[in-house]
Amino acid sequence: MEGLLVSSKPKIKELLVESACEHNKGHKKGPCNTPTPGATTGGCALDGAQIALFPFADAAHLIHGPMSCVGGAWETRLTPTSWPGRDLTQTGFATDINTNDVVFSGEKKLAEAIDHVITHYAPEAVFVYSTCVTALTGDDIDAVCRQGSERHGTPCVPVHAPGFVGAKNLGSRIAGEAVLRHLIGTKEPEDTTPFDINLIGEHNNTGELWRYRHLLEELGIRVRSTFSGDGRIASIRTAHRAKLNVIVCAKSLISMTRKMEEQYGIPWISCSFYGMTDTSNSILAIAEALGDADLIARTRALIAREEARLEEKLIPYRAVFAGKKAVLNTGGNKSWSIASALQDLGIEVVATSVRKSTEADKAKARQYLGEDAILMTSPASQQAQVIDDTGAHLLLAGGRSLYTAIKKRIAFTDVNQEKKKSYGGYDGLLVLAEDLKNSLQNPVFELVDRKAPWQK
Amino acid sequence: MAEVRRKTGKPLQVNPHKLSQPMGATLAFLGVDRCMPLMHGAQGCASFTKVMFTRHFCEPIALQTTAVTDVTAVLDGGDYSITESIKNIGDKVCPALIGVHTTGLTETKGDDLRGVASKIEAPLVYVNTPDYQGGLESGWTLTVQALIEQLTEPCERTDARKVVLVPHVSMQPIEVEKLREFIEAFGFEVVAVPDLSSSLDNHLGEKQASLSGGGVTVAELEGLADAGAVVTVGASVKPVGATLQKKNPAIRHRHFDHVSGLVGTDELVAWLLETSARDTPPAVVERWRKRLQDAMLDSHFSIGQTRFLLVAEPDHLAAMAASLREVGGKVALAIATVDSPVLGDIEADRVIVGDLEDAEQLRDDYDIIIGNFHTEALAHRVGKRAVMRGFPNYEEIGSALKNDVLYEGGAYFLFDIANAAERMRESEVHHARERIKQQGAAA
């Protein structure tokens, strides 16, 4: 009977109660967040699916819905590619449905849109994203995609992540599900090595992948495919032949790696490439997971070389950062991964936010920061007091917290994804060091909120 | 006049510059003081909108969502999610107004917004803005109409000194302020509806956008109907004149398609002189007119030899095209987001409703592009130069303080464009000379 159910729609409930997800352990309230009306921030499932898949620059990304779903969002993903063809990550495709499509179905329009995209842009695949409106009107995007694939011989992949099914994390999982179901395992690689890995959840934001990929390659570790930073459709189709899945800073894609372990026997490990310590630990963890004694030895040597090189370049910064204290207000695994990078620079992290962190993240934050550090559960209201109590010199947070820093007259650095620079890998630490130095030495934070001449 | 194509004729948008109707509604509500715009849709509808305006204005944006889920989409007619939202918003802040606006999702499922609104006691204005209809301009206009219809108290007397100003959506905050002050300089009291000039004008405020800070107040909205005149600027907001006249038929309505360039501003000044019964304008107005005249002569040589592609909302196209035409700029192609009655009046060789794929295909027609930040990448692809105007602009800071209107802004606009055209030609000359040098070296 199972085979008769042809819909590629993932079972949302299953994805929500992902057994490997830390959020689902010890929670009475139920699985990953249900949004509260009038008190919700953050993107929807469609946003998450776009974040997860848009880095595939050789695939077209066609949003089947109205303009809100992509109008302000296309060409905003800072995920560069080395794909020599037209960069489709930065190309917006939308069916821009109108009243007619709502009443009489938008399937024909979608089919024609797929024809247009394939004829004019020759993508390696077309991801077709349903949206709230077209999900509600019941457009059968599975059928339209199937027919499109048959008509053109180009995989058309339905992505069932309409915004109303949940938040970004869920959309990211759904994207993983779509790739797992429609692309992975659809092609055999020409050759394999014992050291083939997939990087899952590495989106190459601001080029972060490029900060460490060459080091893996130097060791003979081959990145067979990425999901999805600087990704290629042809490579992800062969991902089932990798020896190891490396999940990079992305809890949301655990479903994908767990299923790949079940289906293809690929083990997985979780890594972070923020800061020197984490980058070293991660590269070593990959080598150890691949289990080759020679590889491990060579990896240790490479790490020693890179750390020595970096330490030397950091010398001028040490004096600037000596005795400096920072308060960190950011979400999820960043609560400890950025903390680790700051510690590498010799900055004491006196507080971090654990508002959106899992229990494991909280434990890790405690472990990295030590017993005296403050783990803020409500950073927006806490951080001003924390800055006073700790005498912090620097606040790293999202733009909304800027005013707190100005009020407290301490330096501020925006840690959010809008940042245009990569802080990943060994060399990223130098970029972070330079940015923090500039923040600490910038007079603006001290100056801007000074009293006006007419204020007493 | 121009050849106009009002339909795209394609099954999709490729590299769209069109923005949605709920986005226009959000922006309009942000021009009301201490307002919480509440988008009735999935959380992403509000999130995408919030991110866009946050990045454009470089300011935190107040916006909440009813966070409709797949479950509430089926089981709820909007009663639960809207009332629950208002309760939750009230737990944290005390808005002077909640601006409920719908999306494609909630319009498709057919929520009875009016019915829900009638049961709510909090100060609220509602507007239906499905995103499968209209665009940024219509969302803005529908919201302004809703504010007046639902808040403004009918009145029978008029105050000849009071003017209600309704700007179109593409006018940046500083432009609204300049226009308001311009009219005030003729002795009028002006209420701008909406008024982004005090809410999203890039000022350092104490509050971090828990509510909109600045803008027209609810009390001012309630008392609009004693105005002597309503001035609408932009074809998209023209219907607002009649909306206000329903509250008081004695209000005079004066419409301008734009207030850009010499002629456009002259028309406004002529009306202001007549209405204020003055013979001469304030000295500063005269001075700026002379500066614009000079700017026109200084820029005509450069702009007069340049072919333009304009990419914008219809009212913005009309304004920019008029300014450029006055100094001989050849507007070869104007690409509008949506259809509008004003398209037929735009001073361009060709006007189409379309996207940036169209712009790319017609690359041989133009030299300089004026449009939102997406035209920057377009310019790179087609080897042209772009000047950033319109929503959204993520590439540059200071968009909110960019002034293109009236005599003053008109001069700045011409300088910006002429300088961009000159830099483009300089760079062409430079490349040509480099080629000649290389050929010389090779020979």
From TrEMBL, chain A:
GO biological process, one term: protein-containing complex assembly
Domain Nitrogenase/oxidoreductase component: 44-440
Pfam families reported in the protein's UniProt record: Oxidored_nitro (PF00148)
UniProt keyword Magnesium, yes or no: no
SUPFAM superfamilies in UniProt: Helical backbone' metal receptor
Gene Ontology molecular function terms on file: nitrogenase activity
Pathway connected to this protein: Cofactor biosynthesis; Fe-Mo cofactor biosynthesis
Entry keyword set: Nitrogen fixation
Keyword Protein biosynthesis: no
Family: Belongs to the NifD/NifK/NifE/NifN family.
Role this protein plays: This protein may play a role in the biosynthesis of the prosthetic group of nitrogenase (FeMo cofactor).
Name of the protein in its database record: Nitrogenase iron-molybdenum cofactor biosynthesis protein NifE
Organism: Marichromatium gracile
Organism phylogeny: Bacteria, Pseudomonadati, Pseudomonadota, Gammaproteobacteria, Chromatiales
UniProtKB/TrEMBL annotation, chain B:
Alphabetically ordered keywords of this record: Nitrogen fixation
Highest rank taxon of the organism: Bacteria
InterPro entries associated with the record: ChlB/BchB/BchZ, Nase/OxRdtase_comp1, Nase_comp1_CS, Nase_Mo-Fe_CF
PROSITE patterns named in the record: NITROGENASE_1_1
Residue ranges of every copy of the Nitrogenase/oxidoreductase component domain listed in the record: 20-421
Keyword ATP-binding included in the entry's annotation: no
Pathway it works in: Cofactor biosynthesis; Fe-Mo cofactor biosynthesis
One record GO biological process: protein-containing complex assembly
Any one GO molecular-function label of the UniProt entry: nitrogenase activity
Cross-referenced PANTHER family: LIGHT-INDEPENDENT PROTOCHLOROPHYLLIDE REDUCTASE SUBUNIT B
Family: Belongs to the NifD/NifK/NifE/NifN family.
Function text: This protein may play a role in the biosynthesis of the prosthetic group of nitrogenase (FeMo cofactor).
Name under which the protein is recorded: Nitrogenase iron-molybdenum cofactor biosynthesis protein NifN
Species, as recorded: Marichromatium gracile
Source taxonomy: Bacteria, Pseudomonadati, Pseudomonadota, Gammaproteobacteria, Chromatiales
